[in-house]
Amino acid sequence: MKVGKRLTAFFLAGMLILTSNVTGFAEETTADQQPEEAKSTYLLTVDAEDSTVTVKGDHVEQKTASTYQIEVRSEVVASVVPADGKEIKEVRVNEEQMDLADGTVTFSMPEKDSLLQVILKEHPIHYQKMINAEHFKYHSRYAMPVWKQIHVNY
Predict the structure, then answer these.
(1) What is the pTM (predicted TM-score) of this model?
(2) Are strands 75-82 and 51-56 parallel, antiparallel or unpaired?
C-alpha cells in the first residue's frame, strides 16, 4: 500500500512538472497581439551652447526647447547662429561631422535617437597698434622723425 501511494505521488509530481513546463512553451497568441512595428519617428536633441539653432523640415515636431520628434529618413535643415564673438568650428550629428554652408546643415534623420552638437570657437579679434618714433629715441641708428609712424598688426 505504501508503494502504491508513493508511486501515485511520484506520478502526480511528474505530471505537475511536465504541465508547468509545457504551458510555458506553448503560449497562445490572441488576435489583439500583433508583432511590434519599427518606430517611424525618433528624437533629435540639440546641444548648442552660446548659439541659436533652428531645426526645420516637413516631418519635424518640436517637443521642448532642445528636443525634436522627427520622422525617419526625412530631410532636416538646421540653421546655426553663434553668439557675438564666436564662430562655428563644426557641427556634428551622432559624432559625424556635417558639411556647413552659410550656417546651415542639411541631413537625413537616422533610424535612432540622435544628437546634434554645435562646437564653437572664439572669433579672432585683430588689434592694430600705433608705434611712435619716440619708442626708438634711445637707439639713434633706428631713430625716425616723429611724423613717421609704424603700424603693426598683431
Answers:
(1) 0.57
(2) antiparallel
